[in-house]
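Exercise 3.2. Students should predict the tertiary structure of the chain below and write it as structure tokens, then compare their answer with the key that follows.

Predict this chain's 3D structure.
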Amino acid sequence: MAHKNFAQGKKLFYHTFPDENKHLYEIDFILSRAQKICPIEVKSSGYKTHKSLDLFCEKYSDRVRDRYLLYTKDLCKDGALQIVPVYMAPFL
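Answer key:
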């Protein structure tokens, strides 16, 4: 897991992980908050499929605080997933 400094002074992480068939999944960004992690997936269109994010949250369920999907449409929520317009990324 690599990290870079985010514009707001937060450390921002990126993560890849394989499934049992060696297919590689990726989480675009991970924020660290209050001893937990917040995975972020970025989509250029559509938000209905987010398998990497789902598998990551399942695998690390005891460590996940909030989960976000950034995309180009309006703010909404799908269960525990917070679906956020890209322009709101600085507020995460």
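Discussion points: The chain is about 10% helix and 45% strand. The longest strand covers residues 24-33.
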